[in-house]
Amino acid sequence: MKSTTPVAKWAALASFFAPPAALAAVRPPYIDPEALPNTSVFKGPWERYIKAPEDKTRIVASRIWDAEGNVTTSGLEAVEVGAKAADAFDHGITVGPGGVLTLEFEENIAGRVCFDVSSAGNDPEIYLAYSESSLYAGPQPDTTTEKLERDLPLHFEFDDTTGTVCVGKEFLRGAFKYLTLSMPEYPVLSDDRFIEQPRPEGQAVLGHDDDDDNDKQAPLYPSGRDPYKKPWVTLQNLWVNCTAFPSQTNGRAYSGYFHSSNSMLNRIWYAGAYTLQLSTVDPREGSALIDYNRDWDHNESPTGSWYSNFTIANGTAVTTDGAKRDRIVWPGDMSIAVPGIAVSTYDMLAVRNALDVLLDHQYPDGSLPYAGPPLGFRGEFSDTYHLHTLLGAYNYVKFSGDVDWLARRWPAYLKALDVSINKVDHTGLLHVTSGADWLRPGMTGHNLEASALLSAVLDKSIKLAEWLRDDRPAARPHGVWSGTRTALNSGIQQLFCKDTGLYSDNIGRRSCRGPEHTDPQDGNSWALISGAAPRSRRAVVSESLRSRWTKHGAPAVEFPNVISPFVSSFELLAHAAANDHDAAVELMLLEWSYLLDGPGFTNSTLAEGFMVDGGVQYPAYWSAARNSHCHGWSSGPTSVLTSEVLGIQLLSPRAPSGPSARTSPSGSASRGAGSRRPRARSR
């Protein structure tokens, strides 16, 4: 089915591009990825769509979401639900036994909670519960781990302290929009359903640094308080010190911008950029997977507990999969995240640190780990994520111009590339040896997605060799790399199903005539992106993918009942590769508008996935509360709008006066949309 929605429905447009003379007059500045700007590079109306705070050290709640039980103003008046939080705190909010107070922040945020305490009595203690979604706002948190349906609330003791006190640095929360404070009814004689444990020996805890800030860190240990006393605490304010996107002192100082006449497209672009910011963390504040951390740090944290103090990489910043969880380096996610980072914040330092940790943990046979630490300890491997690491290297070098880094990493890259080439057999397809992928089932045998990914990687590898001026025989026009790519593109054609106009998952049970026939969204998208699909079939595949869209987006049929913004991001690229940019934009407006405005989502960041009927549960997890509502792999529109719809594409990092680029707007789909991108000079 051909895309027929009039472009005028989403953009009534006028070209944003200036003539060469005008461009010369407003030549954009050089952006140093190791010293990102702290002021706006381009000021304009697009800045109102930016979600990140200018001052991330003190983020305050926007309103009172709920108040129950013993919660009053300092004048003993009821706290009004829906009131501005600042107004309520101006009068002081007192929480006593049985009181429950839930605060809502304007955006999904991250960081360490601090309190301005005006008075307290009888050793007050509260429980803190965090949630990204309004559906799980309350005394029980959402969840980061697989063991329990909900995380344990964090136990916090004020110890009659006044002034500013903060939770321990190891208990910064990676993402939340709702924060609930609750004080138990008394007497409380014993309860182990909260986090209150001595720090285990060997656990890498970020210590409190008095030179770093002036606030006091609340004790982690119980105070031995009298369980029959009636405590209370009056708060004059509550705020969050956000430690995400550590490379940026001003979160609103982007290096790249986007603006169009369609407000939803603008919102989607900036939500993707903000999602990538919150998912970029201090490497010492990583990994919510405490059970995997245990292989390295031997922690004794109780089931359902959480912390954010595991070192996942070197350096000062690293891009991860998600803000709440998993807070580790996942190569597949980077295939979407890196181009998005490049056109928005340009935090290439965080990208390089992520690639370094993957390559530093390369296995002896050349295979690359499924993910960064704490994974890799047990030899975890994925054929597809192995290839995504190589794509990440290409994207990093293209956008950063860091050819020196590539030269240092080239031997490891070549060794990894050979691992995948050697899995292509007489069928002309890659025979996967691991079932691991993006958690979808059925990754087995001679697989479409893996084969198309390798085809794309081989094409990029030839370009990398050119940038390095490496004239090895394998990289030449008739060498092993181009020959293997030709064989793959030919072998993939045996998977094409004329009845559906799509490629099947493999040549086995999930083939066109197999008992489990599946035409995967991921593999078909990559067949178009890689160029494996011949020109005569590209429109057919694009239209067949589009014909499967449902009310809320494009289903990933290889994973029943799942809409995956990760795989849909690849579908956006696929439609662009088939020259149907209107379909790409329509899918953004269908799926990503729901990710922003659908019930239970954050209206500011992009979730990991959801159910076909629109439910916020991501079926990969048994607990609906585990869904990450800030996941970098969902940010595809941020780069696709810039590079494909507007057609601003970086072709090469090497040129005498800087990178080689082209601007090729996609006809009607680009009218009235504009983007500004500072030049990224080769270094």
UniProtKB/TrEMBL annotation:
Residues 202-225, 652-683 are annotated as: Disordered. Residues 314-553 form the Alpha-L-rhamnosidase six-hairpin glycosidase domain. Residues 674-683 have a biased composition (Basic residues). Coiled coil: none annotated. Residues 1-24 form the signal peptide. It comes from the Eukaryota. The keyword Signal applies. The keyword S-adenosyl-L-methionine does not apply. Gene3D superfamilies: 1.50.10.10. Keywords: Signal. GO terms for molecular function: catalytic activity. Residues 652-673 have a biased composition (Low complexity). One of its GO terms (biological process) is carbohydrate metabolic process. This is Alpha-L-rhamnosidase six-hairpin glycosidase domain-containing protein. It comes from Colletotrichum liriopes.
